[in-house]
Every structure is written in C-alpha cells, then in structure tokens.
Amino acid sequence: MSQMDMFLVALASACAAFPVLGVLWWIRDRADRAAAAGLDTVDIDPYHAVATARRPSRVGRAAAAELLLAGLIRIRDDGMMEVTDRAQESATAPGHPVPAALLATLRRQGEPFPLSRLYWESGYTRQRDAFLRAEDLKVPRWSLRTRDSIAGAAFATLILFTLWISVQVVFLRQEYWTSGVGPIVVGAWCCLVLWALMAVPLVWLAERCWPKRRDRFAAYCRRLPAHPAERALSTEERDLLDRSWTWRNAYERAKDEETWVDHGGGF
C-alpha cells in the first residue's frame, strides 16, 4: 500500500468517526431527555438544588437564612454574623449538615464574620462539598453532567489523525533513519511543529462547533423555587442577609471605587 493510499484510508476513517459520534450524541441526548422527564419524582435536597442551579458558594446563603429563622444566629447592621445566646447555651445543631457546618464554623471562630468570607473557612467548605458529592451520587446520571466523553472522543480523533499525518510527512522517509541522530532530532522537532499547526486550529474549530451536552438536571433545578428558608425571610432579614453576602472591607471598597473611576464611571 502506497503512502497516498494509507493517507486516504486514515482520512476516510477519521471522517467516518464523526457521523458515528454524532449518532451516539443524539442517542445520549434522547436518553437524557427521557431521564429528565422523571425528575419530578426525585427527592432533590434544596441545598443540592441551590448548588446545582447556581454555584456551591450560594449554599452558604441558604444555610445562613435557615439559622437566622431558627434564631441561632443574628446578622448585625454592618453585615457581620454572630451566634445568638440561644445557640451558645445549647449544644443542639440543625438536622441538616450544611447549616450545622455553618453554625459549627461560627462557634469555632468565636467572633463575628460576614457571609462573604465563608469561602475562606476550609472546615465548612469540606463538609459542604462532602454533602454535595453524596447528593450527586443519588442522581448518578447527572453526577458527571459536566463531562462529555463523546466530545473527548471527537477531539482525540482529530489529535491522533493530525499526529499520524505529521509522522507520515516527516518520518516515512528513509534518509531520516540512515543519516544519524541529528536528522532524527530535527525531524522530531519538525513533526511536533507540523502536528501543532494542524491540531490546534482543527481542535479549536471542533470545540466551537461540537454541540455541548445539555445539563438538563441543572436546568430543572433552576426552575425550582428558591430555598424555603430564603423564601420565609422577612424583608428586613433579607436585607441583612444581602448585606452580609456582599460585605467588603475598606480596602476592597476603595479598590472598587478606584476601578469604577479608572473605567470612566466617575464624573
């Protein structure tokens, strides 16, 4: 088989792989749609729904709302959270692990701090993330929803095909193997450069054009009502929660004002 014949066989194989991958993507999308139709019967934890629909850090806001309603914490006018006398006198904790982790963090700190600084608390984030991973395992079809193995196979096909072409062009010449180490090293460098010149634009184009896997579980969670504790807050309590959620120290406020002026926001 000549080199041209080998190239045509490889090209045909690469071109045939994409329709197959496209059919697999369509089959999986149909299966995802069918599975999403039954999500109304699944018991989804409200904190898990918040983390899925928004982001994991938003879970702390819902936990603070639950503790606020239970009278276990208070939020001062400056946005600082602190444990109430009731929580200090009692060793009881909420039944749910997320607000329990937040309350334990506040007790461990021993001093008020704002909700916006919660992501610095590694003890709380570890417990929160462990809870979210456990909840993900209860919905196994969606627990790896951010991964798309079919797209990975499409990109790998392009990478291997362009690597094969660069090797064919550079190394399938007898002089490279009979002229010493120097030509082989130069050939390897030329092979890598040629491979990069072909693979980078093709993979970029495929990444732009390849249809993303629809995260139907996240879309379902976004349609759910807000967390029950946040819905139950009064207007005053919600304002205090917002103040703690967006709290900034003096340096950060000064930087925000400086950025605003630098970008033409000032008069």
Architecture overview:
A hairpin with a 4-residue loop joins β1 and β2. This protein has helices at residues 3-36, 46-53, 58-69, 85-89, 97-109, 122-137, 140-143, 149-171, 174-178, 181-209, 216-223, 228-232, 235-245, 250-262, and strands at residues 73-75, 80-83, 113-114. With 267 residues, it is mostly helical. α3 (58-69) packs antiparallel against α13. The mean pLDDT is 81. A three-stranded antiparallel sheet has the order 1-2-3. It has 14 helices and three strands.
Low-confidence stretches: none
Helical content class: 55-70%
Order of H and E elements: HHHEEHHEHHHHHHHHH
What is the molecular shape? elongated
Order of neighbouring strands in the sheet with most strands: 1-2-3
Mean pLDDT: 81
Largest sheet: 3 strands, antiparallel
Class by alpha and beta content: mainly alpha
